[in-house]
């Protein structure tokens, strides 16, 4: 039996980079859930729970790459004998828990952008929250934020302009941090090592739906 990772679709590029160095027969299968499910924590919990339950007898090792974005996620993960990559949120997985907490301590009202969220901001945030048609809702939700921090994981500068446009739309100052993917890759590889038996996998990638 092989191993499998259940992950948020927003982590697809850095996650696949993290496992690309593994030998082909060591690569786990991957299922990505739509990033937009973050807006519906109860549905996200149900989806994760259903997936983990369906893996019984099929996969020997299950890794969940989610922060505490879903209700009772650690309870669900433990119930099914899976392992969750440590981190309060994906932002903490990217920069490290200590740095993440220090950033929030410095400016509690920090609105984080990742590469994928920056790339798909309208689809993942503006449209589902109806911010353009209901600006008062946007104002209410953002009233305690003081800055935008774009965590540039891929370090290619290609989304800087988009990040500035988003910050302008949010009416907040922007900080860009070239954090790279090293911390995230280390977390993934360390978690894979926690699975004592690492049997051969077909290295497949499954995607339930597009983001």
Structure description:
The chain has 211 residues and is an alpha/beta fold. The chain has 2 domains: 2-90 and 182-207, Rossmann fold, CATH 3.40.50; 96-177, no CATH class. It is built from 10 helices and 8 strands. It has helices spanning 12-19, 41-54, 73-79, 90-95, 97-106, 115-119, 121-129, 135-142, 160-170, 182-193; strands spanning 2-8, 29-33, 59-65, 83-84, 110-113, 147-151, 174-177, 205-207. The strands form 2 sheets. Strands 4-3-1-2-8 form a 5-stranded parallel sheet, with helices on both faces. It has a 3-stranded parallel sheet with strand order 5-6-7. Helix 1 (12-19) links the parallel strand 1 and strand 2. Helix 1 packs across helix 10. The chain is globular and about 50 Å long.
Write the layout of secondary structure elements.
Blueprint: E1 2-8, H1 12-19, E2 29-33, H2 41-54, E3 59-65, H3 73-79, E4 83-84, H4 90-95, H5 97-106, E5 110-113, H6 115-119, H7 121-129, H8 135-142, E6 147-151, H9 160-170, E7 174-177, H10 182-193, E8 205-207
Parallel strand pairs: 1-2, 1-3, 2-8, 3-4, 5-6, 6-7
Helix pairs in contact: 1-10
CA-based gyration radius? 18 Å
Largest sheet: 5 strands, parallel
CATH C-level class of the largest domain = Alpha Beta
Strand content: 15-25%
> Which stretches of 5+ consecutive residues score pLDDT under 50?
197-204
Q: CA-to-CA gap between the ends? A: 29 Å
What's the mean pLDDT score?
90
Corresponding CATH architecture of the largest domain: 3-Layer(aba) Sandwich
Q: Helical region count?
A: 10
Spatial sequence of strands, sheet with the most strands:
4-3-1-2-8
The counted number of beta strands is 8
What name does the CATH topology of the largest domain carry? Rossmann fold
The tally of structural domains comes to 2
The geometry reads as globular
């Amino acid at each position: 039996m092989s191993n499998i990772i259940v992950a948020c679709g927003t982590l697809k590029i850095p996650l696949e980079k993290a496992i690309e160095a593994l030998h082909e027969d060591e690569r786990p299968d991957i299922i990505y859930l739509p990033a937009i499910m973050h807006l519906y924590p109860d549905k996200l919990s149900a989806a994760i729970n259903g997936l983990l339950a369906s893996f019984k007898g099929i996969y020997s090792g299950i890794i969940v790459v989610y922060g505490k974005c879903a209700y009772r996620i650690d309870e669900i993960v433990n119930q099914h004998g899976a392992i969750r990559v440590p981190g309060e949120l994906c932002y903490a997985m990217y920069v490290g828990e200590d740095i993440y907490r220090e950033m929030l301590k410095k400016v509690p009202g920090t609105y984080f952008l990742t590469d994928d969220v920056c790339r798909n901001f309208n689809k993942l945030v503006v449209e589902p929250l109806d911010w353009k048609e209901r600006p008062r809702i946007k104002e209410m939700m953002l009233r305690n934020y003081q800055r935008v921090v774009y965590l540039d994981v891929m370090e290619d500068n290609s989304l800087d302009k988009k990040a500035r446009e988003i910050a302008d739309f949010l009416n907040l100052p922007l900080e860009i941090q070239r954090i790279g993917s090293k911390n995230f890759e280390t977390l993934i590889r360390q978690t894979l090592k926690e699975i004592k038996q690492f049997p051969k996998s077909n290295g497949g990638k499954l995607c339930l739906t597009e983001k």
